[in-house]
Amino acid sequence: MLGGSRVDATLRLSAVVALQNDAVCDDCFAVGPAAFAAAVTELQRTGHDLLGFWHSHGNGDPRPSATDRRELWREHLHVIAGVDAVGAERLCAYWLDTDLGFHALPLTEQDDDR
Ligand SMILES: [Zn+2]
Questions:
Q1: For 99-108, how does the pLDDT look when each residue is reduced to its tens digit (9 = 90+)?
Q2: How far is CA 69 from the centre of its chain?
Q3: Exposure check for the chain: N or C terminus, fewer CB within 10 A?
Q4: Distance of CA 60 to the CA centre of its chain
Q5: Ligand 1 centre and the CA of 54: distance in Å?
Q6: Residue 110 falls within a domain, yes or no?
Q7: Is the pLDDT of residue 37 over 70?
Q8: How far is the CA of 57 from the centre of ligand 1 (A)?
Q9: How many domains does the chain have?
C-alpha cells in the first residue's frame, strides 16, 4: 500500500506499508479486511493519505495485465515492478481512471526537504 500526499495532479509518495497476498493464483491479489484496515490505519497514524498500491509481475513486464485492468482500484496510483530483458528492475507508475484507463506517470526521486 502506498501513502503520501496529493496536490492537484502531483502525487508525492512517501510511505509504503506491506500487505500479505492471500490470493492463491499467480495473477491476482487479495488482502483480508483486518490487514487492509490495519494498513490504512498505519498510513493515517503517520500522516499519510492512501494514494494506491504497488505489486510486481512475475513475468517481468511492468505494464498492467488483463487482470489489473479488471480488478485494480480506480482513481488510485498503481506502481508495477518488473524486470527488463537483461534483468534490470523497472518500476512503472500509472493512474487508473474510472473509465478503466491507465495513464502512465513519470517517477522522479526527490529529497525529503523539497
Ligand atoms: Zn499486475
A1: 869 999 999 9
A2: 13
A3: C
A4: 16
A5: 9
A6: no
A7: yes
A8: 6
A9: 1
